[in-house]
Batch of 2 targets.
Target 1
Amino acid sequence: MSPPQQPFFLLHLLLLLLPHYLFLFSSPQSPPLLQLLPADREALFDIRQSLHDLPGSSFFSNWDFSSGSEPCNTFTGVICSYDSDEEPNFLQVSTLTLGTGLVDSPGLGGTLPPSITNLTALTELVVYPGRVSGPIPAEIGFRLLRLRLLSISGNRLLGPIPSSLSNLPDLHTLDLGQNHLQGPLPPSLFSSNPNLKVLLLASNGGLCGSLPHEFSDAAKLLHVDLRSNSLTGPLPPPPASLRFLSAAFNSLSGPLSPAFTTSPLPNLEFLDLSGNAFSGEVPPAIFSLPELSSLLLSRNNLSGQLMVAPQAPLSSSLSVVDISHNMLSGQPPEALATAGSLYLNDNHFTGTVPTEYINSIYSGTMTTLYAQNNFFTDISPPPPSTAIPASASLCASYNCMVPPPFATAGCPAGARGELPRPADQCSIGAGGGDD
Ligand SMILES: *[C@@H]1O[C@H](CO)[C@@H](O)[C@H](O)[C@H]1NC(C)=O
Ligand SMILES: *[C@@H]1O[C@H](CO)[C@@H](O)[C@H](O)[C@H]1NC(C)=O
């Protein structure tokens, strides 16, 4: 979102147009500048009628439609361009940025008028956070065929994501997060936008239905954020290009294995599937994704023994592994000692808290180890004559052992202090859950 510098842009335009003027006007003293296409001017006028500055915002203060005013030169947020193939005699609006985007600006209110789709040369449409409500004009994708960037996050948009937002050959970023949108994700969003790289739909609450299987084939996707919606069904295999995926706090379910054993994910750095209803094992292959840095799977229904892939090397970049609040059992793998932060708490783990983890904490590699609220029966003592680094947090309270003091000093507020788990829960084994 860095619009070209306007003065430079106009100079560029003049140089571009100079031959035309020399040809058209024999008298060189006063070449008139091109004006905005009347249809675009009308659309801007209509937009101005439909939207308003919220108290404290003054975005529209220089939008003056009196005769002789020239929106391309004077209206904040309006950038025009010239395309001799489309409109040989006029400029058209190519970038429209509504609102100032300043952190202390309350933004705009009102609704997006359908006439916004009359600005057919638009490549970028940005509405900064505010209180713009109502639907996204359904025709938007049928008419704004040159859209590269559409960003209307943090407003109060209602209704569906228009299915017209497909077949847009240049669309690279669609950001409609933090609104009140509802309904399904149009499959064509993934299958028919060949250049879509960034898809931000988080925190709408009402986006529902399944994540279409077309998601797997969106070959250029880099960053997808679907957090805090109402999506259901399984997670299809993510496309190989992906670096960032959050689908946290939805109602996705089923096993994770199909999504993480079928396709290579050589670039995936961030994966957040917390707060869903995924079940079955944590696929061992997930720990070997070469670029994985954050793996967040807490608050699901994952079970079985936690394992890393025996042959493949562990990702060397793991900084956070959070698998807390599941139903995982057995002893967790030693190999995870290389993680920067390891959250195992609130599972059904048994056996000894691996010595490698304790060594990693004392050597300063691992900074957080949460093992509380499990069924561990032992924890090895810290390495001799070393002090725990001041920044480290280690917690192993509420297990099937009396935790030594070093294993409770780093417990978060609310963890059950130095208490062991009641003996009757431990005698029946890890089956007696306590969540
Ligand atoms: C938008 O375009 C349609 C059809 O081309 C036209 O009927 C309508 O008046 C235009 N609206 C505005 C506000 O310019
Ligand atoms: C959790 O997973 C188990 C099987 O692993 C299944 O029987 C149970 O129904 C699941 N619970 C929920 C709430 O999904």
Target 2
Amino acid sequence: MSRNAESTAFRSALEVIRAVEPRVADAIGAELTDQRESLKLIASENYASPATLLAMGNWFSDKYAEGTVGRRFYAGCQNVDTVEALAAEHARELFGAAHAYVQPHSGIDANLVAFWAVLADRVESPALKKAQVRQVNDLTEADWFALRRELGNQRMLGMSLDAGGHLTHGFRPNISGKMFDQRSYGTDPATGLIDYDRLAEAAREFKPLILVGGYSAYPRKVNFRILREIADSVGATFMVDMAHFAGLVAGKVFTGDFDPVPHAHIVTTTTHKSLRGPRGGMVLCQPELADQVDRGCPMVLGGPLPHVMAAKAVALAEARRPDFADYAQRIVTNAQALAEGLLRRGAKLVTGGTDNHLVLIDVSGYGLTGRQAEQALLDSGIVTNRNSVPQDPNGAWYTSGIRIGTPALTTRGLGTAEMDQTAELIHAVLTQTTAGANADGTPSKAKYVLDPAQADKISRQAADILAPHPLYPTVDLT
Ligand SMILES: *Cc1c(COP(=O)(O)O)cnc(C)c1O
């Protein structure tokens, strides 16, 4: 695509927006500048292609399209049908899935759709069946009471938050922790790895309806064949949330036992993390769950976003091209180079390294909390996020970890040499930062001391690493 077409498209769009509310046009322009200037190591973020971004800004946004392809509750959905069917077809082909539902607005929404589908499919409640076959008006007071009691008593076994699981895998304050009676599995304290034998034991004891695999902050591969065997041994439905690593599955870095799609009954994902699409979610499933999954909207979800489904179709088409597999491989090579660079300089990493796109640094070795480290890195032009480490003594707010990931910088074209330079900068910031104190002299978990001149110097070095790799090189707004 010519530099001209993309620059013209974005420039013209901003001109049209500027005529109505110039502050919005300015903010959009400023966002591009900020993204171009920051060394972005947020493991869950990426940079979608211009084609993906442009597919979202149009009149598809004006359409209501409740229902599914060919079975809508609104008239005039023929063009929405085209893009939704295309997105689903690309998803099925890309992941080798029997069924794909591309309407979820985000990863959390995709999980709610999956939970509801499994409950609807598995819970032997006459009241639930009535609700499912649209005999809702026939439900008696007693039916409703039974329904609430039965649904609330179902069991879920998911990875604990501090071991790298996600809030929606049954964390108490999350809706999933209220919908389900949840128990979690952690990692081995000595190695930081999932202990499959203990997991099998927990499943045998607890007998969950749903076993959830997948994570947001676990830096290793997971053997989904073993998880499926465990699920089968207790009659559980096996669900995998691949929100973080979908790009590595799409790019065939995770194959065989490590590819969740052939092993799980149901797989959920985001589309905007390593998969590099628009913000959104998706559910892939075995044929027997397809009908329930397709009822996601309006059972669980608000009306579909056809403009985002159009962008999903574009991004999934991109992910089916051979260069995406090369991209996915480079994400992992870069993460490993970053991990090695940090280890060589003395950093402590959870599990001692990585075999995916993310690295979890235990910053307690630097005498800092995650919160202090995150802010000091940000002052130095390096964007990361703090994260709990297993058995974190500082809890989920201050934490003891920094999570970093390579999908975004790899999209930008950075390679292993730049990862080593990045490791040097991170290590420099963390060694030069010291924990601060409260006004009364007690140690603070938030305050820190970093010489601003040092922070500036490192910011300039971070900018030097980025300079040869401009972000969105085909887009010139000037
Ligand atoms: C990011 C993430 C989600 C949530 O995705 P949203 O699009 O923010 O709703 C769900 N599950 C996992 C494992 C994630 O990492």
